[in-house]
Amino acid sequence: MVLINKEDYTVKRTFIEIRNSILMSLASGQKTINQISSETGINWKTVERHLIYLNGKGWVHEVLSSSFVRVFELTDFGKDYLRKMSRNVNILDDKIIKFSGEQ
Q1: Domain presence at residue 3
Q2: What share of the chain is helix, strand, coil (3-state, %, to 5)?
Q3: What total number of domains does the chain contain?
Q4: 8, 86, 87, 100: most buried, per Cβ within 10 A?
């Protein structure tokens, strides 16, 4: 469900849509918060907050953390979730390798 603010005509994504966008972004490999933000069009602070949630659920894992950068990747549990939620994801050798059109 997409909510539209009639005052300024902005489209608000639901938490599920935001989290699915983040997971799909990570499907192609390890990424920083800023890379995910740029790819999904979601504010970096929002991405960071949802990554904390997804990490707690066991769907993503933080592989590098420093003062300047944090890198995340999908866990096997996150990959299983993507397999179940999307038919647009191709998986080869237990790695998500590309996105395809509707089949």
Answers
A1: no
A2: 45, 25, 30
A3: 1
A4: 86
